[in-house]
Design a protein that fits this description.
By secondary structure, the chain is of the alpha+beta class. The chain contains 12 helices and 43 strands. Strand 23 and strand 24 form a beta hairpin. The longest helix has 20 residues.
Length: 762
């Protein structure tokens, strides 16, 4: 981003960030007010909205049972409100039923005065009656055209509307005197100031891939971004540049060499948007071979979907991300933002809603070039990127890519770690708005497209089936979630030589990106393991998934990253975090490491500490791991809006297969030992299972038709981990045919079972 200061009305040039609400645990923490069950409510001001929006609070952390009870009583959940509350849309009869639910200790109307951003109400007196630029957000399915007419009738000047059903909005201007009347519009969720947006302003590719001068090992293996589309929201873009033009004359669209989508295009392209697009995916060689290949973008064979951002801040960012998604973009780069604002804004909610709704999407964002972190890089599910130096020398002082160059200091106002990582942002040469020109620019703007390009390469690696074998296998193709890409990229980071000292820290985050650190290729000593659960198969409050892996030696550090896409927060609440998943790592000797608990001086995980309640990225790093069986746990500590999916990436020196299971009330299947597939001529398949208590049950092999093939155990099964071998024969001792079988652990009554698949090859 450039360092241009946005032009704001005087009323808005105030500190817009609110500190965390000083509320006791369990209080309802809106940005405008804190409500404590059992205490008197603040005196009402003005008329009620009468739209059925109410806040329901529980005396405990709510989960799936409470959500089901709300639905059965006729309530519609619109949002989670910290702590332990929901914003509902509900009629009077249903409200009566809801008030009697177990654990409910507060049910109150969502008052109009609570729907105004504090920076508006606090600054209204200073503004006099001058018009203020406002954004009004409404509940799902609000008739937005009607609300626009009502706002105009009150005296507001309408600028733009968004009719997206999930989050309809109005952008308008109105004097401060109209705020109470606008706040009483039916179905209104929040009124906030409309904030202007601005830009955030060769060597990138080798630094991001290997960190060794001129070495591009990802490209060298044939991964250049083929088959990938990168979403690009920026200022004006020049598609006629030789870095993007189609020499065959194909029109912009699905057959174009480089540009599959071009949104609103107000005129001649600008250098900033053209430069960032070139850093992501530019390639001039097909048009002008004289340009050479040294200025290729990080994913030069990928294509682009471009839209302009709106400098006035009057845009539905979700709609732009979705438009790019619908033409195939799964990685999105953004090098602009709203400086001098630290709140969780509507743009933040748009990013998080898109990431949660479209689980394959990853949104990458350049953090501000100002001194501290602003917005919307403070969204929960975006990958926030700061800029490092390259290999240039400034005034005789060496400034390497291992040093911070530009990017605001974190954390977010609610304590989340941002930025997450660094990529080169200084002295980057890329395309400009001339037919075949190029120029040098610096800033975090240049770092974001480099990271998006790396994400596109990582996605290509997974889609083409390079994992787990380290070579492309079509049958191993994996369509990754955005959470998995985030976990993989963060697991690719290395510490930097930056101030403040210590790792991680609030300036460098998790460090500089080195993609080769995580991707596994055949023959590498450092291996890669991945797993993901989409939201539909995710965790509810109190649930747990366990993984057991064998670390063969301490020769390679053990690095594990957990990532999840939290449901969007709401700008009207004090803290945007909704769900809380935690990473735990247990060593063979029983030592427990919690995600994000680090010894900053040593730069690795430390024993003790507390579970992280706010970050959607959690890491554990053991520099010299003890050889033996390690356990990774993903624990759902709080999931008011679930189920919650997640992704895991781990690197180290591993042996054998990673076994995963979810603890059940009575028993669970752990999994199969290697090999699977198995050849009976070479040995047996070992089935491992765990019981939490002694019980009666059976372990039985079935074929695809559901016919019993072999009973391996029946009767009293002992608590703990057990294993049984199958030699590939049926109950009569005859060899079973090649094919797919299922080993099923069954309770004696048949009401509970767990199964794993076995592939038998003769």
């Amino acid at each position: 981003m450039s360092a241009r200061r946005p032009i704001l009305p005087a009323v808005l040039l105030i500190a817009l960030a609110a500190l965390r609400a000083a509320a006791a645990p369990g209080a309802v923490q809106l940005r405008a007010v804190t409500l404590r069950p059992g205490e008197p409510l603040p005196a009402a001001r003005g008329s009620e909205a009468g739209d059925g929006l109410r806040i329901l609070h529980f005396d405990r952390a709510p989960g799936a049972a409470e959500r089901a009870a709300i639905a059965a009583a006729g309530g519609e959940i619109l949002a989670y409100v910290p702590e332990n509350a929901y914003l509902l849309r509900v009629d009077a009869a249903a409200a009566t039923r809801l008030a009697t639910l177990a654990g409910v200790d507060l049910l109150v109307d969502y008052r109009p005065e609570w729907r105004l951003a504090p920076e508006l109400t606090e600054g209204a007196a200073r503004a006099g009656n001058a018009p203020l630029p406002l954004t009004l957000s409404f509940a799902p399915d609000t008739p937005i055209a009607l609300r626009a007419d009502q706002a105009v009738a009150l005296g507001a000047a309408l600028s733009r509307t968004s009719e997206r059903a999930a989050r309809p909005r109005l952008w308008l201007s109105a004097p401060a005197a109209l705020l109470p009347a606008l706040a009483a519009l039916p179905d209104l969720l929040w009124i906030s100031p409309t904030l202007p947006a601005s830009d955030r302003n060769n060597d990138s590719s080798w630094i991001v891939q290997s960190g060794t001068l001129g070495l591009r090992p990802i490209w060298d293996r044939g991964l250049h971004g083929e088959g990938q589309i990168i979403g690009h929201i920026d200022s004006n873009f020049f598609p006629e540049s030789c870095f993007f033009a189609d020499p065959g004359g194909a029109p912009i669209g699905p057959t174009h060499r480089k540009v599959v989508f071009l949104g609103e295009y107000p005129g001649w392209g600008g250098s900033h948007g053209t430069h960032t697009a070139g850093t992501a995916a530019g390639d001039a060689a097909p048009v002008d071979p004289g340009v050479g290949t040294e200025l290729r973008g990080g994913a030069w064979a990928a294509r682009l979907a471009h839209s302009n951002y709106d400098a006035a801040g009057e845009r539905d960012l979700y709609a732009d991300l979705l438009a790019h998604h619908l033409v195939g973009a799964r990685v999105h780069t953004n090098s602009w933002g709203q400086d001098f604002v630290t709140n969780y804004t509507e743009y933040c909610a748009d990013i998080d809603a898109y990431s949660h709704d479209r689980e394959e999407g990853l949104v990458v964002w350049a953090v501000t070039n100002q001194a501290v972190l602003y917005t919307p890089e403070n969204a929960k599910s975006t990958l926030a990127v700061a800029g490092s130096y390259t290999n240039d020398t400034l005034g005789g002082i060496y400034r390497g890519f291992h040093q911070h160059y530009s990017g605001g200091l974190g954390p977010t106002v609610d304590g989340r770690r941002k930025p997450e990582l660094h990529a080169p942002g200084y002295g980057i040469r890329s395309a400009n708005a001339l037919p075949c020109g190029n120029t040098v620019m610096s800033g975090t703007s240049m770092a974001s497209p480099a990271v998006a390009a790396a994400a596109a390469l990582a996605r290509q690696y997974l889609v083409e089936g390079w994992w787990p074998s380290g070579a492309p296998v079509a049958g191993d193709s994996l369509i990754p979630s955005g959470a998995l890409l985030r976990a993989l990229l963060v697991n690719s980071t290395l510490p930097m030589d930056s101030l403040p000292a210590g790792y991680p820290n609030d300036l460098e985050g998790w460090g500089r990106l080195r993609l080769e650190e995580a991707l596994y290729f055949a023959g590498d000593s450092r291996e890669l393991w991945l797993d993901e659960k989409r939201n539909g198969e995710g965790l509810e409050s109190g649930e747990l998934t366990l993984y057991r892996m064998t670390v063969e030696s301490a020769a390679e550090p053990l690095a594990v990253t957990l990532a999840f896409t939290d449901p969007p927060g709401e700008p009207f609440v004090a803290e945007p975090v909704v769900n809380d998943l935690d990473l735990e790592l247990r060593s063979p000797s029983g030592q427990l490491y919690l995600g994000n608990v680090f010894d900053a001086e040593r730069g690795e995980s430390a024993l003790g500490g507390d579970a992280d309640p706010v970050n959607t990225l959690e890491r554990a790093l053991i520099a010299a791991p003890q050889p033996g069986s390690w356990e990774i746990r993903v624990r759902a500590r709080r999931v008011p809006l679930g189920p919650q999916g997640y992704a895991l990436a781990a690197n180290g020196d591993f042996a054998g297969e990673v076994l995963s299971y979810r603890p059940d009330a009575d028993f669970l299947v752990v999994g199969l030992s290697y090999p699977n597939p198995f050849r009976p001529a070479a040995g047996t398949a070992t089935l491992r299972f765990e019981l939490r208590a002694d019980q009666r049950g059976a372990l039985v092999i079935y074929d695809l038709a559901g016919r019993r093939v072999r009973q391996l155990a029946r009767g009293r099964l002992l608590a703990g981990i057990s294993q049984l071998a199958w030699d590939g024969r049926d109950d009569g001792g005859e060899p079973a045919a090649s094919g797919i079988y299922f080993a099923r652990l069954e309770s004696s009554g048949g009401d509970r079972s767990r199964a794993v698949r076995i592939v038998l090859i003769r």
